[in-house]
Each structure stands twice: as C-alpha cells, then as structure tokens.
Amino acid sequence: MKGALLLVLVGSCQAQADHPEPPMQCPGAPDGLLSHAKASLFLNPKASCPIVEAEIRARVKGVNGWVDPHNHGTYTMLHDEAGVMRLKRVTGNGKYTDMLMFTFSDWGGDYGCQVTACSESQVNSFLDMSTNFCNLHNLYCGKQDGCPVADQDIGEYKEELRTFSRGAGKDKSKCIVKETAVASVAAAEPTVESVAAKPCCKTCTLPLVKYYSVDRAHGFCGDACMDPKKFSIYKKFEANLTLVDASHPDCSGQYTPDGKFYTDYDSTVTHGDPFGILAVTLDLYAPTGMPDHSCCSSPIVIPVVGPINCNGKPKNMTIRGTGPYCCPASSTEEKPCSKVAFPKTCDTECRGICCNSGGGDACVTACGCKKGSCPPEAASLII
Questions:
Q1: pTM of the predicted model, to two decimals?
Q2: 312-335 burial: b if 16+ Cβ within 10 Å, else e
Q3: Does any domain span residue 51?
Q4: In sequence order, what DSSP letters do the residues of 207-274 get, joined into one string?
C-alpha cells in the first residue's frame, strides 16, 4: 500500500515537472511612473486552450453583442500569435488604458490548459478597485460566475491569484456592475466642461492649505489646495510636493531652469482616483514668456517599444531648460512651432496619452485637440 502511494506521489510530481506552467509575462508600463497598479493570476480551465482562446477573441470582438460587464470597457487585441495574447482595455468613459497579456500552454486532456495572465495600469495609480483583476477575469469567467458569454462558456476552471501590487484589489464582485450602477457612475463623473476654466487655487479656504510641485520635465509648476491630513499620502506619489509658506512661495515664486518664474497660467486640471478618494484640483503654470511649444511632446516611453508619441517629431531638445521634448525637425528653442501645421482633427488616443502623462495643453493641442479638453484624470496621482 505504501509503495502504491509512493508511486502515485512520484508520478504526480513527475507530471508537474513534465508540464510546467507557461512563464508569467506582463505588458509593462511607461517609464517614470512612481507607482502603478498591477495584477497577475494563473488560470487552469477544464476546457482546452483553443476553446479558451476562442472565447477571449469572441469577447474582444463583441460577438453576439457581448459587452464588458465592468462598466462597459473596450478591449482591443494587439497581438495574438504562438500562444501569447497582448491586449489593451480602455475604460468605459474612454479616459484610461490598461495593458494585458495572456500566455497559454496546452498539455491535452481535462485541466491540461495552463494560462498565466497579467494586467498593468499605464498611469500613476495605487487603489485600482479590482480593475486590473477584473480586466483579466472578465475575459474567461462564465455562467457559474454570472458573467455574460460571447460564444462558448469555458465551464469549470481553477483560478490562482499571483502577484498583486499594493492597493490592487481582487474582489470578484467588482467585476460585474449592474446597468443602474453603470449609469450612476457615468452621471457622477465630471465632464470636460466641469473642469475649471480659470485658476482654482489662488487662495485656499481652511482646512485646505496651498501646496506646490515643480515638474521641470513637462515645463510646469502646479498649485493646489489640499487637506494637510492627506499630505503624507500624496507625497508618496509626488516627491516634489511642498507646503507653501514664508520660505517656500507658490509657483509664481519658484525659479525656472533659466532663472525666471512660473507665472503664465496654462490650465486647471483634476488628478486622482475614479472615486475621488485622493482627487485634487490644481492650477498649472508655465515659465514666464515660454514660447509656444504645443507642437512638441514630452516623450512617453514604453519598455521595449520606446517613445510612443514622437512620430513625425524627430528633434530631441530642451526649451528654456525644461524637457526634453520631441519636436518637429524645423523647431528651434526660440520658435519651436513657427513652421508647423497642426492636425485638423482631434486624435483622441493621442490626447488621452497627453492628459494621463501630465503633458497639459501644450501636448494636447499637438494632437489636434482644443486647449483645455483634458478630462479629469481618474488614475494619475502626479500633481
């Protein structure tokens, strides 16, 4: 009896050694993020990998009217080859993008399909309210979970949670949002028009006090009225955040790299999480007399891929000590955009990247979009 049991255990261990799970591959996130939410898991369905892959493709394509049950997000397949899928998901309000990867190995038979999956936010984020987990889960969950199916329910499966960033949730109940809740979330979300068209933070009313932060890379300084009780939290995401006092003046008294000050009002934006837990509104100021550089962009670098917003802007340069920027070939530091024809239509994807990266109106207008058209940010905590 002991010999038989030993044989079974040895056989089981040998089977696991012969059938290792696929490597955990994550899509990565832009360089320069101080923190971003991330979730990964292992999926072991009873169905074969071809069935699971086919159902994921069907959901991405919206077959039979399938809609993402998590606030109507939109999935796009970016790569699908040799057992590896790379996707992106844009939130239902069109503002934010997460990147996903699925890696498959199929050893045949029941539970022979092994899948590793990973989702990462592409902006500074901490609390994700289980969004990254749901990004993955909603592409394979079935009727047993109350999930809508596009073509074929994959049936029974085992799901093991792996690496989750601090603050990333793993609550399945968050993955299916009732229609009434979706409508209420959409109604409660600030619109572009609700963003202040004039400075918000010239003065602060207690208990709020004024803080500033200089972002030399993007050429801005931000003034904000904040609750001092939350300072230690915000400071983790914005190392330059400083209390305005007699020794530390607001942006108008902060030196630019070329010895001037941040006095030219650019825009007022709101940064924070989608539920307003850490939301803050701030005024952005550019250096005094900063030349128009709306045709230039602050490089947004994706690991392996490189800069994703510098097409047609081959010149790497600084302007008044800020930057670096990628600009058109004809740009000079004195007149970065003197000979540049702006796009005639608004590239919303380009605008979304600008807004989420803190590029401000200079970046947004280079996408052919109107100044001040950045929606309130739901994931970025940079101020």
A1: 0.50
A2: ebebeeebbebbebbbbeebeeee
A3: yes
A4: T-EEEEEEETTTTEEEEEEE-GGGHHHHHHH-TT-EE-BTTB--GGGSBPTTS-BEEEEEEEEEES-T
Does residue 323 share a domain with residue 210? yes
The CB density around residue 118, as the number of other CB atoms within 10 Å, is 23
User: Which residue in 325, 303, 323 sits closest to 313, CA to CA?
Assistant: 325
Cα–chain center distance at 368: 22
- Whether residues 171 and 208 share a domain: the answer is no
Specify whether the CB–CB gap between 376 and 268 falls below 8 A. no
Say what the pLDDT of residue 284 is: 86
N-terminal to C-terminal alpha carbon distance within the chain: 67
Domain shared by 94 and 242, yes or no: no
Name residue 307's beta-bridge partners: 301
Write the pLDDT tens digit of every residue in 130-139: 999 999 999 9
One domain, residues 151 and 198: no
**Residue 159, helix vs strand vs coil:** strand
Domain that holds residue 224: 192-366
* Segment 55-111, tens digit of pLDDT: 999 999 999 999 999 989 999 999 999 999 999 999 887 778 899 999 999 998 999
Q: How far is CA 233 from CA 181, 237, 238, 282, 379, in A?
A: 29, 7, 9, 17, 15
| Identity of the amino acid at 89 | R
Cα–Cα nearest to 319, from 286, 351, 343, 346: 286
